[in-house]
Design a protein that fits this description.
0% strand, mainly alpha
Protein backbone atom coordinates (compact mmCIF):
# COMPACT_ATOMS: atom_id res chain seq x y z
CA UNK A 1 0.00 0.00 0.00
CA UNK A 2 2.79 2.41 0.88
CA UNK A 3 4.59 1.71 -2.41
CA UNK A 4 1.55 2.64 -4.52
CA UNK A 5 1.01 6.01 -2.83
CA UNK A 6 4.03 7.78 -4.47
CA UNK A 7 3.01 6.38 -7.87
CA UNK A 8 -0.57 7.56 -7.36
CA UNK A 9 0.65 11.03 -6.38
CA UNK A 10 3.01 11.20 -9.37
CA UNK A 11 0.20 10.28 -11.78
CA UNK A 12 -2.15 12.80 -10.17
CA UNK A 13 0.41 15.63 -10.28
CA UNK A 14 1.45 14.88 -13.87
CA UNK A 15 -2.19 14.84 -14.96
CA UNK A 16 -2.74 18.21 -13.29
CA UNK A 17 0.35 19.70 -14.96
CA UNK A 18 -0.63 18.42 -18.41
CA UNK A 19 -4.21 19.68 -18.13
CA UNK A 20 -3.13 23.11 -16.88
CA UNK A 21 -0.69 23.38 -19.81
CA UNK A 22 -3.40 22.49 -22.32
CA UNK A 23 -5.85 24.98 -20.84
CA UNK A 24 -3.25 27.75 -20.70
CA UNK A 25 -2.30 27.25 -24.35
CA UNK A 26 -5.95 27.38 -25.47
CA UNK A 27 -6.49 30.64 -23.57
CA UNK A 28 -3.41 32.16 -25.17
CA UNK A 29 -4.60 31.08 -28.61
CA UNK A 30 -7.96 32.76 -28.03
CA UNK A 31 -6.26 36.06 -27.13
CA UNK A 32 -4.32 36.30 -30.39
CA UNK A 33 -5.54 38.72 -33.06
CA UNK A 34 -6.63 37.29 -36.42
CA UNK A 35 -3.86 37.09 -39.00
CA UNK A 36 -5.86 38.90 -41.69
CA UNK A 37 -7.32 42.24 -40.56
CA UNK A 38 -10.98 42.70 -41.40
CA UNK A 39 -11.74 46.00 -43.14
CA UNK A 40 -14.46 48.14 -41.57
CA UNK A 41 -17.92 47.63 -43.04
CA UNK A 42 -18.75 51.31 -43.28
CA UNK A 43 -17.26 54.55 -42.14
CA UNK A 44 -19.36 56.66 -39.83
CA UNK A 45 -19.29 60.41 -40.38
CA UNK A 46 -18.52 62.51 -37.32
CA UNK A 47 -21.95 64.18 -37.41
CA UNK A 48 -23.87 60.92 -37.77
CA UNK A 49 -27.12 60.54 -35.87
CA UNK A 50 -27.72 57.25 -34.14
CA UNK A 51 -30.26 54.99 -35.81
CA UNK A 52 -33.59 55.25 -34.02
CA UNK A 53 -32.78 58.56 -32.33
CA UNK A 54 -35.51 61.18 -32.16
CA UNK A 55 -33.43 63.41 -34.48
CA UNK A 56 -33.28 60.69 -37.13
CA UNK A 57 -35.41 61.20 -40.22
CA UNK A 58 -36.96 58.93 -42.80
CA UNK A 59 -34.52 60.14 -45.46
CA UNK A 60 -31.42 59.44 -43.35
CA UNK A 61 -32.76 56.04 -42.40
CA UNK A 62 -33.40 55.16 -46.04
CA UNK A 63 -29.92 56.45 -46.94
CA UNK A 64 -28.36 53.92 -44.56
CA UNK A 65 -29.73 50.98 -46.56
CA UNK A 66 -26.78 49.37 -48.37
CA UNK A 67 -26.75 49.67 -52.15
CA UNK A 68 -25.96 45.96 -52.49
CA UNK A 69 -29.01 44.85 -50.51
CA UNK A 70 -31.33 42.33 -52.10
CA UNK A 71 -34.90 43.28 -52.92
CA UNK A 72 -36.22 41.54 -49.83
CA UNK A 73 -33.63 43.15 -47.57
CA UNK A 74 -34.38 46.56 -49.04
CA UNK A 75 -38.14 46.06 -48.57
CA UNK A 76 -37.68 45.03 -44.93
CA UNK A 77 -35.35 47.98 -44.26
CA UNK A 78 -37.76 50.46 -45.88
CA UNK A 79 -40.65 49.11 -43.83
CA UNK A 80 -38.56 49.37 -40.67
CA UNK A 81 -37.60 52.96 -41.51
CA UNK A 82 -41.22 53.92 -42.11
CA UNK A 83 -42.31 52.20 -38.88
CA UNK A 84 -39.59 53.93 -36.88
CA UNK A 85 -40.49 57.27 -38.46
CA UNK A 86 -44.13 56.90 -37.44
CA UNK A 87 -43.00 55.94 -33.92
CA UNK A 88 -40.81 59.08 -33.73
CA UNK A 89 -43.53 61.53 -34.79
CA UNK A 90 -45.16 61.81 -31.32
CA UNK A 91 -41.76 62.50 -29.73
CA UNK A 92 -40.88 65.08 -32.37
CA UNK A 93 -44.26 66.79 -31.86
CA UNK A 94 -43.65 67.17 -28.13
CA UNK A 95 -40.11 68.46 -28.69
CA UNK A 96 -41.42 71.25 -30.96
CA UNK A 97 -39.90 69.99 -34.19
Amino acid sequence: MHRQLPIYRAVLVSTFVILSGILASSVQAADKAPAIPVPPVATIPSKAIAAGASEDSLQTCLARIPKGATTGQRLMAEQSCRRDDSDRKPFQATLGR
